[in-house]
Amino acid sequence: MAAVKDSIKILENIALTDDVFSMWLDASTIAKKAIPGQFVNLFSKDHSMMLPRPISICEIDKLGGRIRLVFRVVGKGTKEFSLLKRGDSIEVMGPLGNGFSIEGKKALIIGGGIGIPPLLQLSKDFAGEKHIVLGYRDTTFMEEDFRAYGNVYISTEDGSRGVKGNVVNAIEENNLDADIIYACGPTPMLKGLQQYAKEHNIKAQLSLEERMACGVGACLGCVCKSRSVDDHSMVNNKRVCKEGPVFYGDEVEL
Ligand SMILES: Cc1cc2nc3c(=O)[nH]c(=O)nc-3n(C[C@H](O)[C@H](O)[C@H](O)COP(=O)(O)OP(=O)(O)OC[C@H]3O[C@@H](n4cnc5c(N)ncnc54)[C@H](O)[C@@H]3O)c2cc1C
Ligand code: FES
């Protein structure tokens, strides 16, 4: 059944850094169905902002009927969400998109910046051996959340924490290997990991955060180039919101 928009109560909304917020929602229907890597569309109360804001599901508490979102304030929509308090309601649609498929025995779980949140639930659900690599520009967040689920390696662009550089530098400096890579983050990072996976013959699942409009597959506003022809548009395109956001590394051109 297609996801519907619902008014959902906020259980907690706290700042993790100056501009990154963690929000728990009382969302039993979404929690029941969601898998790691899927996202929800959040709607603004300001009707001048018609388009929903896609935010990945960071944690899924199926028993408690709750989901957690972690988001960075970048514009009007996310600013509005950051000001919401416990007890307020928000319009939410989800879960949307195709999430990660759990496979392999030894994983490299790699997040960059605000691509880090969706990897927390994956880190919980992946039962095999795992190395978790978190890449930041400077200020770190959610590091402690991940430590409960695997070995954590940090990279920062300014060298203030962990390895100076990017996530590939952290993988190489720590000699990390795996039979599956799961990653979410900015496109240049995903491109680097797509190449790294190819060179090392490792399967990769990459979560793309393309700019979106409708968020539900109707407008083709979020297409990325794919190796195969898409059934919907009959060209070498895939809709990130519908066929993604998670794709195999050899499926898409970045
Ligand atoms: C699948 C997916 C998952 C995401 N998960 C997260 C997450 O977990 N945490 C987080 O902080 N951010 C996430 N983003 C990015 C987030 O959607 C944007 O930062 C947010 O929509 C910006 O809205 P705004 O009104 O604050 O900014 P504005 O720049 O004012 O937004 C203007 C318009 O552009 C769209 N837009 C702007 N930036 C993006 C972007 N990067 N991706 C998609 N649409 C964008 C907005 O939805 C809106 O319609 C995700 C994006 C995608 C596609
Ligand atoms: S955002 Fe409209 S099809 Fe993906």
Task: Describe what this molecule looks like in 3D.
18% of the residues lie in helices and 35% in strands. With 254 residues, it is of the alpha/beta class. The strands form three sheets. Strands 4-3-7-1-2-6-5 form a seven-stranded antiparallel beta sheet. α3 links the parallel β8 and β9 (129-136).
CATH architecture of the largest domain: 3-Layer(aba) Sandwich
Proportion in helices: 10-25%
Number of strands: 17
Which topology of the largest domain does CATH recognise?
Answer: Rossmann fold
Count of structural domains: 2
Extract low-pLDDT stretches: none
The profile of the biggest β sheet is: 7 strands, antiparallel
**Structural class of the helices, strands and pairings?**
alpha/beta
Assembly type of the shown chains?
single chain
Please report the distance between the alpha carbons of the first and last residues: 31 Å
Mean pLDDT: 94
| Name given to the CATH homologous superfamily of the largest domain | Nucleotide-binding domain of ferredoxin-NADP reductase (FNR) module
Ligand types: flavin-adenine dinucleotide, FE2/S2 (inorganic) cluster
**Gyration radius from CA atoms, angstroms:** 18 Å
Name of the level-1 CATH class of the largest domain? Alpha Beta
Q: Could you write a compact summary of the structure shown?
A:
The chain is built from six helices and 17 strands. With 254 residues, the protein is of the alpha/beta class.
List the helices and strands and how they pair.
Elements: E1 5-15, E2 20-26, H1 28-33, E3 39-43, E4 53-56, E5 59-61, E6 66-72, H2 76-82, E7 89-96, E8 106-112, H3 118-125, E9 129-136, H4 143-147, E10 151-156, E11 163-164, H5 167-173, E12 180-184, H6 187-199, E13 203-207, E14 223-226, E15 237-239, E16 246-248, E17 252-253
Parallel strand pairs: 8-9, 8-12, 9-10, 10-11, 12-13
Antiparallel strand pairs: 1-2, 1-7, 2-6, 3-4, 3-7, 5-6, 13-16, 14-15, 14-17
Bound molecules: flavin-adenine dinucleotide (FAD) and FE2/S2 (inorganic) cluster.
